[in-house]
Design a protein that fits this description.
The complex is a heterodimer of chains A (297) and B (206). Chain A is an alpha+beta fold. Chain A is 38% helix and 27% strand. Chain A has an eight-stranded antiparallel β-sheet, with helices on both faces. Chain B is an all-alpha fold and 206 residues long. The chains are: A alpha+beta (297), B mainly alpha (206).
């Protein structure tokens, strides 16, 4: 019995010391980590804004799944004139309710709490966010979809940048755990940049082919190396022009990762376009005044 | 064993050659197969292992009299997991660029057999200073083996080294695929042992 107590106490002390150490380090590093992540996201988004854009404002739309007694609704946290509002729609897109949201909504934890306060008695689950870059008139300069898709191993977090006409400006891989040298190549420019310039119609019909990437196509896709290779932006764009309507070339040895990311981008963009239409129409019907114009330019 | 003398050089040579984790002890073969399709991956994973091995070795050797004999394995796992989490959180906050590349590997280290086996075999029976150098030797030996396999596979698989193009084509793409890791490690392990045997025979003749 004494032996038993000694062992239990011993393991208990080790666990407590280790938990305390981790707790201290977590509280010291978490803020910095979040700031880094935010900074990385902002710099990723900045790359897709027009260089001469003045007075750009960012407005975020957050989507929540609301549940109560077997009934499912979708809640949109929208930036409106003078604050934020929660617009609740049923799956068909009809307005169920609207209410102002009090408190800050930028931080995920704070936002979850604010949504719960606004909709007491509901199960609220965060789904995803859309970030709109707006000019002074509230027109979209670019839209950013933060979403995820299943990769070969686990979730791949993506950032898709869309222009005002909903054509793809670019794709960024925010987080993934694919195999280095194989699936991890999805973060390389020669794969990501194949999506740039696709219009919505092209994207709907976009497929993946298992064909080797032509050498000159690869060179013009690797934009960050243009300067080092002596390629002018104009020459680079021209070299890519004859390939931009081809399907996505799968990464050698990582066809599944390539296919999943392509499907993910298509799905995210299609859902975004559909939802933005629904939200704009529903907001008008509900008498809300979102800070963004209903259509892109 | 407590009385035996260990020098810095002896411990480093032990980890790098005599008890090389990959080629001799054949421990932690999963990462060695999965993460060696290029040199850079081998180096980054090696670096992460080096840190966790040294930190865990030192911690265990300091508290070796406190840890109860019958629960030493769970205790070691907690210690390893703590150091892995500390390095994970620290890197995420203070070296985000580096972390983005290494994040994948850091979390895997908790289950590496080499680390817990060194705690059990060495650190739990020796004082802090030899344990520190044992960790250094094992970490460096692991890194060396991974990079050695990485050089072989990256050059043959992608025609490059450390991501720098050397050949304008890919000689044998087969070597970049995960199953080729088994072949590569088997061949290089044979080469490593053959070289060591030749060296010992040569020294014996002198």
């Amino acid at each position: 019995m004494r032996e038993f107590l000694k062992i239990a106490l011993n393991l208990f002390v080790i666990s407590v010391v280790s938990a305390a150490l981790l707790g201290v380090i977590f509280t010291h590093t978490e803020e910095t980590r979040k700031r880094n992540e935010q900074a990385r996201l902002e710099s990723s988004m900045g790359r897709y804004l027009p260089a001469d854009a003045q007075g750009v404002r960012f407005a975020a739309i957050h989507r929540y799944l609301l549940e109560q007694g077997g009934r499912q609704d979708i809640g949109y946290v929208l930036p409106v004139r003078g604050g934020n509002a929660l617009l609740v729609l049923d799956p068909e897109g009809n307005v169920v309710s609207k209410a102002p949201v009090s408190g800050p909504v930028d931080d995920e934890a704070e936002r979850d709490a604010a949504v719960k306060r606004t909709m007491p008695g509901f199960q609220a689950r965060y789904a995803d966010s859309y970030i709109l870059a707006l000019d002074s008139g509230g027109h979209r300069l670019a839209s950013f979809i933060q979403g995820r898709t299943a990769g070969f191993k686990t979730w791949v977090k993506l950032l898709v940048a869309l222009g005002p006409d909903n054509a793809v400006l670019g794709l960024e891989i925010l987080e993934h755990e694919e195999d280095p040298g194989l699936g991890a190549e999805i973060e390389q420019e020669y794969f990501r940049n194949q999506f740039a310039g696709r219009t919505l119609d092209e994207l709907n019909a976009l497929g993946v082919v298992k064909l080797p990437l032509p050498g000159d196509y690869q060179r013009c896709l690797e934009r960050s190396k243009w300067a080092a290779r002596g390629i002018t932006p104009q020459a680079g764009a021209e070299a890519c022009a004859k390939y931009v309507h081809e399907d996505i070339h799968a990464i050698t040895g990582a066809t599944i990762s390539s296919r999943r990311v392509t499907e993910g981008v298509k799905r995210l963009v299609q859902a975004f376009v559909k939802r933005m239409d629904i939200v704009a129409a529903a907001a008008a019907k509900a008498g809300l005044e979102p800070v963004f114009a209903p259509e892109g330019r | 064993m407590e009385g035996q003398q260990y020098t810095v050089l002896e411990r480093l040579a032990n980890g790098l050659v005599r008890e090389n984790p990959i080629f001799k002890l054949a421990l932690s073969m999963c990462p060695a197969v999965a993460m060696t399709n290029n040199v850079r991956n081998g180096f980054l994973l090696g670096l992460a292992v080096l840190f966790v091995q040294v930190a865990s070795n030192v911690t265990v050797s300091i508290f070796r009299r406190f840890i109860h004999e019958r629960i030493r394995i769970p205790a070691y796992i907690i210690i390893i997991a703590t150091w892995v989490s500390v390095s994970d959180m620290g890197l995420a906050a203070y070296a985000p660029g580096f972390y983005k590349e290494i994040a994948l590997y850091v979390k895997l280290i908790v289950v590496f057999a080499i680390i817990i086996s060194r705690l059990e075999v060495f650190a739990s029976r020796h004082t802090v200073w030899p344990s520190f150098w044992d960790g250094m030797g094992m970490g460096l030996g692991f890194m060396f083996a991974l990079m050695f396999v990485g050089v072989f596979r990256e050059f043959l698989g992608s025609g490059s080294l450390w991501g720098i193009e050397i050949l304008p084509f890919k000689p044998f793409f087969f070597w970049s695929l995960p199953p080729a890791g088994f072949f590569a490690i088997g061949l290089l392990m044979a080469l490593f042992l053959w070289l060591e045997r030749r060296y010992n025979a040569w020294r014996g003749r002198k």
